Please model this.
Amino acid sequence: MRIASNSLKDLISFYHSELNTIYDSSEIDAILHLALEHYLGFSRTDILTKKESNINQSDLLKLYFCCKELKTNVPIQYILKEAWFYNLKFYVDKNVLIPRPETEELVDLILKENKSALSFLDIGTGSGCIPVSIKKNNSNSIVYACDISIEALNVAKKNAALNKTEIIFMEADILNEKEVLKKMAGSFDIIISNPPYIKENERDLLTKPVIDNEPHMALFVNGKDDIIFYKKIIDLCQQKLKAKGKLYFELNPLTAENVLGYAKASKQFKTVELIKDLSGKMRFLKALKN
Model:
């Protein structure tokens, strides 16, 4: 591993030559943008217009060691300890999933449909990207978030502070109905969840950076029931979702119809619908309570 010179052009070539067995060209470009923005404050325009410029030795070393760590399959977000989501910067570490573009679509859908001051509950909050983004863009709302992982809640609390948002956090195991009902006083206008939904037989479809680094508890649903988390949350809506309240899920397209069927069978919703993501997959569920 050796960079030909201190020029930005040679650094870009170096990243592509070193990482092309792990990532495709467009992914390497995206990684470079994040690294150069983090270490040098470069914009996308800077990357295009300053290719002949030289990078000082100190910054070049940081970018070199960043690439070295990337070669061990560590995602760039974990190296930089940051990820962008809904135009906000979030702290991330290996206790939480890296926020995904599909979840940005979910947040966008929720914010467009719910602009008034409402009470929100995010179940399985992870990094806190959903509740923080909602509170930041709907400042009059009251936002609650829960997770089973204390480590994840610590990350979420850090992100609430980082983005100057007031979120009410709770430690709770959604599979323990009695505990959840005891800890959550009152009911909510909106309940949201992006729970673990990847089936064990889909493990081989995931990339090595994901498998080797992201928390499996937040990725995989274990056991015989692939939609157990969705069922528990739908059941919880009987008591915790207000009349005319809304439920929003991010889904695994492979089990979306099963979740839809369970929600309809609960007979507590006036309407239940599946919504496609930008790639055309059945990714979200929206339900309006009676």
Summary: Residues 113 and 241 are 17 Å apart (CA to CA).
